[in-house]
Automatic annotation (TrEMBL):
One of its GO terms (molecular function) is oxidoreductase activity. It comes from the Bacteria. Residues 7-200 form the Ketoreductase domain. SMART domains: PKS_KR. Signal peptide: none annotated. It comes from Methylobacterium oryzae CBMB20. The keyword Oxidoreductase applies. PROSITE patterns: ADH_SHORT. The keyword Oxidoreductase applies. Belongs to the short-chain dehydrogenases/reductases (SDR) family. This is Short-chain dehydrogenase/reductase SDR. Pfam families: adh_short_C2. Keywords: Oxidoreductase. SUPFAM superfamilies: NAD(P)-binding Rossmann-fold domains (SSF51735).
Amino acid sequence: MRRFPGKVAFVTGAASGIGRATAIAFAREGAQVAITDRTEAPLEELRAEIEADGGAVLAIRCDVSVPADVEAAVASTVAQFGRLDCAFNNAGIENKAAPVHEIALDEWDRILDVNLRGTFLCMKQEIAQMLRQGSGVVVNTASGAAIRGVAGGASYAASKHALIGLTKSAALDYAKSNIRVNAVLPGNIETSMMDRFTGGDIQKAIALEPVGRLGKPEEIADAVLWMCSDLGSFVTGASISVDGGWSL
Ligand code: NAD
């Protein structure tokens, strides 16, 4: 039994890592999937992969920090598939490590523009559509760094902490409108972001994980699909850690 037949999913940052795994999972569970990313070539590869697997997919180049891109991406999704049931706002970037007094203003803005403002821009468009159709679920990718500090990572941690406030407030705004809004908080996950973060020294990240291994992007996808499914029907405003105990 597939869990999302007739449903439409929208995924940002879908060309790599957690977004890619989640887009594939949605398609395998029967959803029609709009895959969006600012990087085009790997997005095209994913589109071909999902199509070859029998999935219905639309690939859209979209930089989440650009309002016109986001508006056009949501509009194209609705034009193609007729609705938008599950929105996974996942696009995010890591900071260049620096203590607070050494963070350049443009570096601070770069992180907040994508991680926080980008998520807000997506939510505005997605939720407007969900209100028109009378239902929907939003999941935002935060991080363990949304509930703990990170030395050298103040801009990233601040952006992810803010996502929790955005998620909780939106959950209240739409609680009576049949729209749920939740956040997933990944720990240390095997993706290209992790490769860049550790400079290839994966043992450094494994040492941070109580369970003694990194998480897989598919393990985040499982949690996102659960939140988007009817199994999560009473879950809204939640911050769900999927992190092997990292944030404890
Ligand atoms: P990744 O680098 O593998 O993938 C991120 C994707 O987002 C890339 O395809 C990139 O092109 C895209 N992207 C970046 N900026 C964008 C923008 N402005 N507009 C559209 N797309 C953009 O990273 P990942 O590990 O899969 O990260 C996904 C999310 O998970 C991020 O929000 C990240 O902060 C969060 N996260 C990751 C980890 C981890 O350990 N990997 C841990 C906690 C949280």
